[in-house]
């Protein structure tokens, strides 16, 4: 579960807020019970007095009172529970309050992330990726194989678009299932409207729900942000909260619609540096483009094409324009 420093601080603050809010609730409960059942306030003072007495004994080298203290406190606690029940409260009304009793609101159990911490991270990743509403619509559960035809045959391979998409989807599942065991990058290419972005959304949803950090940007947004950081421009974009380090350290970087940006020496250099850095540190990247492999080679520097062609699994998607097909079916 790799997270950035900023994400770690956000999660730490959330857990601190949990503890503070639960402590406030606890104090309110105590005051309520004390006002309605003064005997319980007296019993708590008795427990405090016994604890102080036991501590003094221990400092004097006499630990004998320790076992008796446990018995006394257990007896007093039982009397408190009886009083609570008799006055319409639950027996555990004055027990410590934890949002997650398993980790006692620390986020960890024996040094390992608690299930609640993983759930909080998923919520955080969804909010940062701006994908939540999209991924509720576009995921493997809503993926429609019927949009790809057996009659649409690729001239080079002789494979139909229906056969091809099954192979592509199978590889997407492989990529997800072995994400933490093998390093792989994906390049989805093919003309517009064939479902590349939909499949990327499917992958993003699965990995976010496994608590991996995903940064998802269109090519235009990606290069705009790199320009902001490179030229120290003011950040006013919705995505300006994403730090430059997150491009390099997130578990998965997604660059959608590569080729829609204005290309120049800066974009070529920035793209190469980012892709190369992620390759060096074995951080996975997914790129989608409407360009053919030949068009990619012609548009970008040779070193960029070499990085992608040599280090990315190339997944061609072809078939009818799905958006048009869906509109006709309405």
Top keywords for this entry?
single chain, 330 residues, five-stranded parallel sheet, 13 helices
Description:
This protein is an alpha/beta fold and 330 residues long. Helix 2 packs antiparallel against helix 3, helix 6 packs parallel to helix 7 and helix 10 runs parallel beside helix 12. About 2% of the residues have low confidence. Helices cover 57% and strands 9% of the residues. The strands form 2 sheets. Strands 4-5-6-3-7 form a 5-stranded parallel sheet, sandwiched between helices. A two-stranded antiparallel sheet has the order 1-2.
Radius of gyration: 29 Å
- Mean model confidence by pLDDT: 85
Number of helices: 13
- β content, as a range? 5-15%
The order of strands across the largest sheet is 4-5-6-3-7
Low-confidence stretches: 235-241
Helix content: 55-70%
Give the overall form.
elongated
| Sequence of secondary-structure elements | HHHEEHHHEHEHHEHEHHEH
N→C terminal distance: 42 Å
Largest sheet, in brief, is:
5 strands, parallel
- Got a strand count? 7
- Which structural class best describes the helix and strand composition? alpha/beta
Brief write-up:
Helix content is 57%, strand content 9%. With 330 residues, the protein is an alpha/beta fold.
Summarize the topology:
Layout: H1 5-36, H2 38-59, H3 65-86, E1 108-109, E2 112-113, H4 115-129, H5 132-137, H6 161-177, E3 186-189, H7 196-209, E4 214-218, H8 219-230, H9 244-249, E5 252-258, H10 265-280, E6 284-289, H11 293-299, H12 302-311, E7 313-316, H13 322-329
